[in-house]
Structure formats: C-alpha cells, structure tokens
Design goal:
By secondary structure, the chain is α/β, with parallel strands linked by helices. It has helices spanning 13-24, 36-42, 57-62, 79-92, 104-112, 121-134, 164-167, 169-173, 208-218; strands at residues 5-9, 28-33, 48-51, 70-73, 97-100, 117-119, 138-143, 148-154, 162-163, 176-182, 185-188, 195-196, 201-207. The structure holds adenosine-5'-diphosphate. The site of adenosine-5'-diphosphate (ADP) has 21 residues, from α1 and β2.
C-alpha cells in the first residue's frame, strides 16, 4: 500500500511539531517555510524541506503539491498568507486541505474557501486544559456531540479492587464504561465482574452531565 504523503506549510511551533509526529507515525512529509532558518532546523527531520513562499502559485505548482494526500497550512500570524495559501492549495486539487486558524473569523474565511478541516489549536487546548483543571481525574475526552462525550478517567486508590457491578455506573448514573485500560492491556467492553485498580483508566461514554455526576460521586 502506498504511504500517505503530507505537505506542511509553515514550520513554526505547531507546524514543526505536527510534521515531526507524522514522520514518527511513518509518513512522508514535505515541509515548506519561507524562513530559511526554520527550514534548516527541520532539514534532518523531514523527508524533504523547501524554502519557499507558499503564496506564490508557481511554488505550489512546481512542488507538485496536488499529488499529495493532504496539505496542512500552519501559518500563524500572517492571516493573509494563510488564506492565500489555502486558496492555492484548494485550487491545486490536493486530496485534503487542513488549516490552522488563529481566530473565529479567520476560521470562517478558511471554511468559506473550502478548506476541508479548520483547526483552532490554541482555543481547543485552552478548553481541554480548563476541563482537566476542574476534573483532576479526567485525562482526556472526545465530544461526540453537544451532549455526548467519551471520557478517560483515572481510577483513584479509593476504587482499588471494585468491580463494575459494584460501581454500577449505567444503572446509577446512566453512563457506561466501554473499556478499562490496564497496565498489561486493554479490556474492551468489560463485564460486570471486571475490576478496576488504582492507575487504571476507565473509558466512559455518556452525556456530559452523567459523566460529571459519576466522576463527582464515585471518583
Ligand atoms: P506557530 O504559532 O505555530 O509557531 P508561527 O506564526 O510562529 O506559528 O509560524 C508560522 C510559520 O509560517 C513561520 O515559520 C513562517 O516563516 C511561516 N510562513 C509565514 N508565511 C509564509 C508563507 N507565505 N510561505 C511559507 N511559510 C510562511
């Protein structure tokens, strides 16, 4: 199977971290930045690097970006450059365009020009950290919809050796434990007899309210 190829445009803090992680995951990454120093810093890390201004149509064409599976625009402060680059990439026919937005308005414009996925790293990280600060046992979560969430909850010492039957989250709180991540492996769809131990991670699905009550009363 052909390995996916990614182009990352803008090798600032976000772009370089994303690009390095894609390499770690085994994909090919072309990094582009107009700043020579930023490119130099990544030259040993990525499959290819190029010093170029991505707002130049010839650059996008000559680098053959349209043959890539996905291009990520991670240009920060320069909103105009971010939007121009995103338009050129959409026009190029590249498989998928992802772009980082610095504000809601920036994101709206990116969406209007057809960017396939707009990401708000700082806004989203702020929200995530706030949730973790108010719920110390909440390790991570995915919002399935406005109301439903999957949350990873750390099991405290007080629950050591308790079975799911004893905790009974479904009958008492309406949320379900869909997996227990243990040191030696993950139990998917655990049964009532499965027990939790300190430092296990429970993966719980339910409404935000159900999970919050479960967390406050049990964990
Ligand atoms: P971060 O917050 O992720 O660090 P920055 O704004 O610091 O974001 O980084 C954005 C990167 O995008 C910088 O390295 C900058 O040189 C690069 N960049 C900005 N405009 C262009 C452009 N037109 N073409 C290519 N790279 C660009």
């Amino acid at each position: 199977m052909k390995r996916s190829q990614y182009a990352v445009i803008g090798l600032g803090r976000f772009g370089s971290s994303l690009a390095k992680e894609l390499i770690k995951l085994g994909y090919e990454v072309l990094g582009i930045d107009k700043d020579e120093e930023a490119v130099e810093e990544m030259s040993d890390e990525l499959t290819h690097v190029v010093v170029a201004d991505a707002t130049d149509e010839d650059v996008i064409r000559s680098l053959g970006i349209r043959n890539f599976d996905c291009a990520v625009v991670s240009i920060g402060d320069d909103i105009q450059a971010s939007i121009l680059t995103a338009i050129l990439l959409k026009d190029s026919g590249v498989g998928m365009v992802v772009a980082k937005a610095l504000s809601e308005l920036h994101g709206k414009v990116l969406q209007k020009i057809g960017v396939d996925r707009v990401i708000y790293p700082e806004r989203d990280m702020g929200i995530r950290v706030a949730h973790q600060l108010v719920s110390p046992n909440l390790l991570d979560y995915i919002e399935l919809s406005k109301d439903y969430t999957i949350a990873e909850l750390a099991v405290p010492r007080s629950l050591n050796g308790r079975s799911l039957k004893e905790l009974d989250p479904r009958a008492r709180y309406g949320c379900s434990v869909v997996a227990i991540n243990k040191k030696n492996g993950v139990i998917i769809a655990p049964t009532a007899e499965d027990m939790v131990e300190e430092r296990d991670v429970m993966v719980v699905i339910g409404t935000n309210e159900q999970i919050e009550t479960f967390e406050n009363e049990v964990i």
